[in-house]
Design brief:
The chain is of the alpha+beta class. It is built from eleven helices and 16 strands. It folds into two domains: 205 residues, Bira Bifunctional Protein, Domain 2 (BirA Bifunctional Protein, domain 2), CATH 3.30.930.10; 79 residues, 2-Layer Sandwich (Enolase-like, domain 1), CATH 3.30.390.50. The two termini are 38 Å apart.
Length: 339
């Protein structure tokens, strides 16, 4: 049963990649069954890849992961494929669904607010921006996922102590060398590590969540229900059928999200390839490959910078071939599609 007015705090320490996922999933089942709201921490002992519940496994470059010995696990909450390693300290706040706002944006603000306080307490001037992204200036400093498991709501985030942006880019199956290079460049530009003392961050997060939720901290461990679930989750997460997920059609274009508002897409039609980086709805950078562009390629790329996607498509369409062909590739990109 829930202990009224208590926030259970579980520090799992350093854990193997599998357990760094299944520990907090088990906690979700415990909170659903009546355990106290729980703040948990864990740090993986080795690199691995985690993919969101609804995402296509084909987004992950399985060959790269196999070559590097990085296991791939499908989590039960949302978000895209991410590279995780010991340079990241993960925190998870797990609450009964009945105790948080029904509207997603309100629930996220409620559960991310104390994390912002914790970052600031250890000297990181974090803010929650208009996209509900945790940032310092224009760089994302915390990747998080949110979702519901049973009757519990979870927000899982990270303190990035050290970040290998090339490894993070390599786990996505980009369609070309050009797209892969742009992906690595964008991740390096828009995702930042914020080194801080992990123990100080844990203490600050505990204080902030207790204060905001008006709960008292209590050191805890997994209860019997959670330990039973842990064994089942270990097996599920290692199952090939669970990892495969549901079958979904291939998208018209390849897309990758870097941070809220910043994403990229790549499309190919025969000998024509278009790779575009987008920042808040406008072309940040375009890379074109076409056998007949020759010297005009750089001028077209320059002309597209700063345009909206619709403006870029119109501009290209007016130029005749191969512009019409390239404009069609632009129209296939869908910023509203789940990234």
């Amino acid at each position: 049963m829930t202990v009224a007015g208590t926030l259970r705090v579980i520090d799992f320490g350093t854990a193997a990649p599998l357990r760094s996922q299944t520990y907090w999933h088990a906690v979700a089942y415990g909170v659903s069954a009546g355990a106290a709201p729980t703040l948990s921490f864990v740090q993986p002992s080795a690199p691995y890849v985690s993919i969101g519940y609804h995402r296509r496994l084909e987004e992950v470059d399985r060959a790269t992961c196999t070559t590097n010995g990085w296991p791939v696990y499908r989590r039960m909450i949302g978000g895209g494929p991410v590279y995780l390693d010991k340079g990241q300290l993960f925190f998870q706040i797990t609450m009964p669904m009945r105790s948080i706002p029904a509207a997603r944006h309100r629930a996220l603000r409620r559960l991310l607010g104390p994390a912002i306080e914790a970052f600031r307490a250890v000297g990181i001037p974090a803010v929650l921006d208009e996209h509900l992204e945790i940032v310092v200036d224009d760089r994302k400093i915390c990747g998080y996922g949110a979702g519901q498991i049973g009757e519990s709501a979870i927000v899982a985030g990270n303190l990035i102590l050290d970040f290998d942006h090339r490894a993070a880019a390599s786990i996505l199956r980009a369609p070309s060398a050009t797209a892969d290079a742009e992906l690595a460049r964008l991740i390096g530009r828009y995702v930042a590590a914020t080194p801080a003392d992990p123990a100080a961050f844990k203490a600050a997060a505990t204080d902030a969540y207790c204060r905001d939720l008006q709960l008292s901290p209590r050191d805890g461990v997994l209860n019997p229900i959670e330990r039973d679930r842990l064994d089942e989750l270990d097996q599920r997460f290692c199952s090939a059928s669970w990892l495969a997920g549901s079958s979904r059609p291939d998208p018209d274009v390849w897309q990758a999200k870097i941070r809220a508002g910043v994403w990229m897409f790549a499309a190919r039609d025969g000998d024509t390839e278009l790779v575009v980086c987008v920042d808040n709805g406008r072309v940040l950078r375009a890379r074109l490959q076409h056998p007949h562009l020759n010297g005009s390629r750089s001028s077209i790329e320059t002309e597209l910078a700063g345009l909206t996607l619709a403006e870029a498509a119109t501009t290209l369409g007016r130029s005749g071939d191969p512009g019409t062909e390239l404009a069609d590739l632009f129209t296939r990109a869908d910023p509203g599609r789940s990234l």
